[in-house]
Amino acid sequence: MEHELSMHSGAAAESPWSLPGLMTVAFGLLLFTVALYWRTLLSNFVYDDWVVLDELATSGTLDSILRHFDPRGALTYRPLAWLYFAAIYGLFGLSPLGFHIIALLLHAVNGALVAWIGTQIAGKKTTGIIAGGIFIALVSLQLDCFMWLVGIYDVGAMTFGLLSLSVLMRGHLKSSAALMLCALLMKEAAVFLPLLFVCWTLLAKRPLRDLASHAALMAVYACMKLLGASPFAAPRDSGHAMAASCSILAGHGAEYLKWLASAFAPVIESNIPEGPGILLILLVICGWGISRHHKPAKVPLSRLLLLLVWILSALAPVLLLKNQSARYYAVHALVPTALLVAILLVEITTLLAPRRAAIIAGFAVGVFAVANALYVERMFSLGLRQVIVNDGYFHLIKRAAAVDAIHDSLMARQGRLPPGTTVIVDGVPPDALGGSRALRLWFRDTTLSLRRGGPPQEEEELSDPARRQGPVIFIDLRSASTPMP
Q1: Is 70 exceeded by the pLDDT of residue 278?
Q2: Which one, of 100, 78, 91, lies nearest residue 149 by Cα?
Q3: Which of 4, 74, 304, 480 has CA 20 to 30 A from 275's CA?
Q4: Would you kindly state where each structural domain of the chain is located, as residue ranges?
């Protein structure tokens, strides 16, 4: 018989999960994660990763950590992430496999935490497991998090955030507060957690004084952020610049809700007009609402409202960004979205086929996973031929393929590059290698440089003596990166 959650005033929620049971679910979700995300294990460091690695290599790990633990003047404050970067660099050097494995392990842990929290909110293990499966299945939305080292900002913040919520539900208040602070020190996107905890505490009919430790640590965090730079006063062209504009909020809000919805069937995202798509979603929600009138054992409306608050509050920080938006910024809103969809699936299938409800809901998760796997597989199959457009991705697959192509081309020449060598690349964005940083790290030579351009003989700039101080190597990737018809 499924566990029905009841809340008693001032009492911690009791878990229906045994440790072996939860470990079994976590192992199953790990296998599911590897099956869907295995291609990311082959990806090299890319884009912003080279900025991090270059700082660790040139400044030293201790100096880098101390600098990023100092909040003064910082636009972003993520010191725990820099501890992680230092550990990864110290353990694995320029081999990316280590951080990929850790990221996927954490993702499976996050899926298990979603299953545990989903059980607490919905009152059924089945719903929790379905929610955990949905969370893992939507790889198209979360892909960028696992393609690069700096994806730990969101993966790690989510791990700490979900742990904080789960131990709060168990009544371990100080531990929850400490974990909340860790989430905030991984990435500012976790700033929605205090509101979520207040809502849960009220829903559980516990006194708000239970959150005294959370309030104290939140005040400490706020003081640290006040010492830094405000994103609302950031330069216009900064990627972290924010503005409280109705047009920005409305535009980004519609964009992120569309990305969350389309993540369930990304292969048909561009083939269904928005109007019919929205109508279909509304019809499903209406059908679910009608079915709830005929279902005596259902998740209370107050808990559904909690999930809606969770979605909106988790999206709120990224909606304010003026200059950028990205699908994976919505990952913190994906958890309550997965919980809502799991509740919808279980309640509808229980009404239509009570004896096969779990099987049908599990089949639906499989459909979501296949749709995402096909979509992502096509992205990987394009590789360098991907077209960089404003579709919510950082196009890390193309950029990672560019890193590999340039690395392999240079290594095939054998021997070290002469000091002062300039590498000119055509056909791919040099930002994939962090400018010249990857080149200098590979060969441990700060005199090397990389830039984008055509063949040397076609460039007037090479008549400049500054261009003739060292050898020039030209790598032509134009044909390799030509989009497929």
Answers
A1: no
A2: 100
A3: 304
A4: 19-384, 413-476
Q: How far apart are CA 146 and CA 154, in angstroms?
A: 10
* Rounded Cα–Cα distance for residues 39 and 271 (Å): 26
> DSSP labels for 440-485?
HHHHT-TT-EEEE-S-GGG-GGGGSGGGGSS-EEEEE-TTTTSPP-
Phi, psi of 279 (to 5 degrees): -60, -40
> Rounded to the nearest 5 degrees, what angle is found at the Cα of 169, between the Cα atoms of 168 and 171?
65
Residue 424 has φ and ψ, to the nearest 5°, of: -105, 130
* Half-sphere exposure in the Cβ direction for 357 (13 Å, CA): 21
Q: Token pair 């270059």 is at which residue? A: 54
């995202």: which residue's tokens? 269
Angstrom distance (rounded) from CA 441 to CA 94: 8
- Cα–Cα distance for residue pair 165/423, rounded to 1 Å: 50
Count CB neighbours of 75 within 10 A.
16
CA distance 156 to 154: 5
Structure pTM? 0.90
Do 436 and 76 touch, CB atoms closer than 8 A? Answer: no
Instruction: Give per-residue pLDDT as tens, 283-341.
Output: 767 766 666 666 666 788 899 999 999 999 999 989 988 888 899 999 999 999 999 99
Cα–Cα distance between 333 and 85 in angstroms, integer? 25
Collapse the DSSP code of 404 into the 3-class scheme (helix H, G, I; strand E, B; otherwise coil) and give the result: helix
Block residue for tokens 């060969």? 443
Cα gap 418→420, rounded to integer Å: 6
Residue 425: strand pairing partners: 452, 475
What Rg value do the Cα atoms of the chain yield, rounded? 24
Q: Report yes or no: 376 and 140 within 8 Å, Cβ to Cβ.
A: yes
Beta bridge partners of 474: 424
